[in-house]
Amino acid sequence: MQYFSTLMLSLGLGLGCQDAAEDCKEGTHRVGHVCMEDTVSDPVLDENLEPADTIPLEYFSINGQLVDFETKEALGKGLCVDAINAKRLKKTGALSSLASTTTKPDGSFRLFDLEVTTQGVLLGVRECNKKVPALYPTVLKIRPSKLDEMTDSRFLNGVVIPVLTTSYVNQMAQSLSQADAVFALKTNGFLAGYIVNSEGAPAGRSTIDCGGCDVFYVDENPEDGLFTEVLEEGIALNNFAIAPAGSIFLIPDPPDGEIDVIKGEAKFDRAAHSTFKAWATTHIYKSHGSGLDLTDDEPPPATYID
Asked: The domain containing residue 58 runs over which residues?
């Protein structure tokens, strides 16, 4: 059995771009959890909006869909999707939108005429004009290599953004507290995602390699905590992603470098992630090969907490 001591990390379970008693910085305003620059206005849904007949090579458009991070079900109409200025968000904590749209009833969206850059594009999802949002502000990075998948019409199709709910983030924070690993999730943001095979099914017994950072894996029984299981030996943490639980992971404080996934001989794209105050970053690690074992053929060894 392995043991680890209580992590000496600051308590910070509150959610939001800043503490409730604080205001957003000058030149910004609060919309639910998010601080937004005063120049940003919510987009108006136009069901008939269509792209131009031709798009210059230095620009592209996106067809995508929002899904609930936990259930994988499509989200509904009227959610705001922004192409975000990542540098300004990192520096000021406030959303600066480069382009905006809203979702249709099936959770699908289109963003037109985005500039091709060597940094890719950061997509952010939020609820429009809600004081107490049910969804937690979530970002997903479209990497430059993904642009190679564009169609001749300069559309990047099939972009899926897993969006966290505020209640699920609360469950994450509570489970970390049960594990004596209480991170201030809102201080620097966090990374959450899941690991799948080439067909999109959960890849069990896979692990995240992030150079020794703390990684937590959701287990099959969320009622006693998303990441914890109460056993006779004590409170246990999974050391592997669990397929029946969706192979979901959480990294409260991801490193600056690239993160690998380890699953036998399977190959996954390495990815570096930025996190942003008051925002969750989500990512789907998908393998290049087929034939991954999709079930946990034996119970993974647990780490027990003193």
From this structure: 28-163
